[in-house]
Amino acid sequence: MANLLQLLGRGKPARPRPDSLRRYRVDVPMELPTTDAVFLVLRRMRTPLVVIVSVFAIMTFGLSMMPGTEENPERLAIFDSFYVISYTGLTIGYGEVPHEFSYAQRLWVTATIYACVIAWSYSIGALLSLSQEQTFRQAIRLQRFGRKVRSLQNPFVLVVGYGQAGEAVCRALEDQGRDFVILDEDPERVQQLALDGYSSDHPGFAASGRDPRMLGLAGLGHDRCEAVLALTDSDETNLSVVMSVNLLRPELMVIARCSDREHAQQMHDFAADVIINPFDRYGAYLVMALRRPAGFRLASWLMSKRGSNLPHRLSHLTDGQWVVCADGTFGFEVTRDLESAGLDVILVDPADGRPDVSDAVGFIAGAESDIVNMANAAHARIENDQLFIAVRQNSAVNAAPLQAFDADSVFIPTELLAREAVARITSPNYWSFIDHVLHEDDEWDRRVMDEIVAVVGDETPISTRLDLDFTSAPAVVRWLNEHELTLGDLVRDPDERDVRLAVYPAVLVRAGRRVFTPGMDEKLKEGDTLLLLGRELDLAVVRSTVFHDSAVEYVATGREVATAWVFRQLQKVTGREKATASRGPVPPADEG
Question: Is residue 436 part of a domain?
């Protein structure tokens, strides 16, 4: 059964940005101090370099002072001495040039060999020691990370926090071909990024999102950055990210995770676009399934995976006593949501043992341990087999046992965060339709659900966005310049006009205003944006129709016209001649 509590979440829309938040335009910091690896090498290798240079200088000067042989009594010139010391000190050994050396010169060259070996050993040891230092290796990784981020050419999303929620978001972005950059405090999580099997190499670095300089280095100031997701386990870190984005790049969308109401209010003050508190929403969706079953089924179905069938109504979800066995914030949030809907709720601590559910209608196992949750859920099912059982899943490791247990509802906070965050970034119009479903009354939801099922079928529809502009729909734009085209015409089969495609218009966006479930007689205009739900093949037909003038004319009028432009012009000329001939000769004017 497709489960809204598992697949769907809705954040609170941010309030308008207060006018009191005056801001001075500041460039996003992009560099951290003392992060240049070359600077670190020069600073730490200063003494070894001085030793090597000193040895070469002393040996060069000393060799030039050594007397020559009886056949060649002249001393070596400075250049010749430097040449000999260079290949000797670098252990190359060309020989005695420009002539044979005297014993004094040979003795000096011998001393040079030992002195250079000692100097090089000391310098290489210092360099190897530097390469093992964490600071130097961190600087190298940081520079490599910065180069990768700066080289990004496609729009990307900055994800702060690569836990379960962050990983789920990144996998959803990967499935849609979107680029992303990872920032997480835990080095092991960032190292796991390379092992998670992504098709592309995505930049990631282990650092705190509280540092605005690290956010800048991770792409906050990049022209291609289109959104920021703050998904860490720390509300304070997520608040810091929201503050930095709001003050440094207020034009970017920022979506934040939050489990504390005080931090959520502070995020609202900094105008976060979406604040997702999965604990706060869970009880609200339970109440929605109880009070508005049609809206629950429709939203759950639309947010299910591709190919999922329309879920059945939860018939045994009724009023009565609810038992919430949970610890921490989760139990408090769920209990308050259920009580606000007028339900009788008992909150018990998992440490107090197995609760009594014999007279209850619903049981929520919401401890922080999956093992405890499954044990309590199993006991509750044995004690009351008519009980509605909801289980909180904290780790993906336990997904298979929970699926085998077949609970009525499985609450996965990470999935909830991921689906809403990705939906808002990649398909805001689709999410606006889901949000509209959640706020409409049950009668409207039931009617729309019946309409979609009648057109598309009972499998989860696929959504697509269609922009009626010259780039995305050139044939439609050319037709609209001289004629009319309705929404009903657009969803006709271009091969058989009387057949309607399995396509349902969900949203029409015109001049920034959204019209939900527009009528088939709605006249389209250039610049409109449509959100269409339907089957994949039928949506592909619509996307093909808008590029062909003959197909657009056929679905609009029923006239079959040639595909090529030349033949269409000939048809127009022939049509005008036939029309003239059918009217007959024009009678002469009466001269009275």
Answer: no
Of 426, 452, 476, at which residue does a domain stop?
426
C-alpha distances out from residue 209 to 132, 188, 364, 572, Å? 26, 16, 34, 65
At 552-577, the pLDDT tens digits run 999 998 887 655 555 455 555 555 54
Is 87 part of a structural domain of the chain? Answer: yes
Same domain, yes or no: 59 and 158: no
What pTM value is reported for the model?
A: 0.67
The packing angle between helices 278-291 and 293-302, to 10°, is 130
Residue 392 falls inside a structural domain: yes
SS3 (DSSP) at 257: strand
d(CA 425, CA 178): 10
Helix (H) and strand (E) counts in the chain: 24, 16
Range of the domain at 308: 279-426
- β-bridge pairing 274-276 and 253-257: parallel
43 in Cβ contact with 236 (< 8 Å): no
Copy the structure tokens of residue 120: 């090089």
Is the peptide bond between 98 and the residue preceding it cis, with omega within 30 degrees of 0?
yes
Phi (first) and psi of residue 229, to 5 degrees: -115, 120
C-alpha distances out from residue 391 to 11, 300, 531, 568, Å: 21, 17, 34, 64
CB 411 within 8 A of CB 282: yes
The answer to whether residue 449 is domain-embedded is no
What CATH number should be reported for the domain holding residue 235? 3.40.50.720
Closest Cα to residue 505, out of 542, 551, 546? 542
Confidence of residue 544 (pLDDT cuts 50, 70, 90): very high
Same domain, 191 and 294: no
Encoded tokens for 370: 């999956």
Last residue of a domain, one of 379, 408, 426: 426
